[in-house]
Amino acid sequence: MMFMSCTGKFRDKDDEIIYPILTRILECKLITHEGCTNQILHPCIPTCFDEQQIVCAFLRTYSSLLWNYRAGFAYSIEELNGNAPLAQSDAAFPPDQQQSDDPTKQPRFFSKERFLKGCDRDTRLTSLYQDYLSQFVNSQMFTQFITDRLTRSPREYEVLFFDELIKLKLNRSKLKLLKEDTPFLD
């Protein structure tokens, strides 16, 4: 039985020093002891793992899923037609940060039924996608996302960034003739 001592040398059971055979992985210049190579799962993580590409993939996915999340917003309880709101905001954000001076123009409620109905209008949706989306709207992540949108100013950077990503996605559509500006992303 061998173990690595604090000095980095292997010792056997009789406490004699054994000089290890080192293995070098050329792609990422990793050097390891031969006995340790079977414990390394992904040796070249910095080489094969691009965090920025993963972040971009998640943003593209969620902007595709949530492109019409504002369809679920309601400005009064009467607009919900008896449906219970998924989230609601009593005082969304300070009046100096509101988009307009009229507080009734700020969404105060979110109805998942209205959101899903807006998604159903897209004829390209498969039943599998619709099933996924109906489960997704019941998740804590979605509820937190909507609550953030109801309680934060539309001018906050995170809200602006995501909304303009959605506009950018919609602008790429060949069916959309009128393209919207995305000054925050420019």
Task: Report what the structure shows.
This protein has 186 residues and is of the alpha+beta class. It folds into 2 domains: 3-48, no CATH class; 51-171, no CATH class. The chain contains 6 helices and 8 strands; from the N terminus they run βββββααβββαααα. The protein has helices at 45-48, 51-65, 112-120, 127-136, 140-151, 157-171; strands at 3-4, 10-11, 17-18, 22-25, 30-33, 73-74, 87-88, 109-110. A 3-stranded antiparallel sheet has the order 1-2-3, with no helix packed on it. It has a 3-stranded antiparallel sheet with strand order 6-8-7. It has a two-stranded antiparallel sheet with strand order 4-5. Strand 4 (22-25) and strand 5 form a beta hairpin. The longest helix is centred in the first third of the chain and has 15 residues, at 51-65. It is elongated.
Can you lay out the helices and strands and say which pair or pack?
Elements (H helix, E strand, L loop, with lengths): L2 E2 L5 E2 L5 E2 L3 E4 L4 E4 L11 H4 L2 H15 L7 E2 L12 E2 L20 E2 L1 H9 L6 H10 L3 H12 L5 H15 L15
Antiparallel strand pairs: 1-2, 2-3, 4-5, 6-8, 7-8
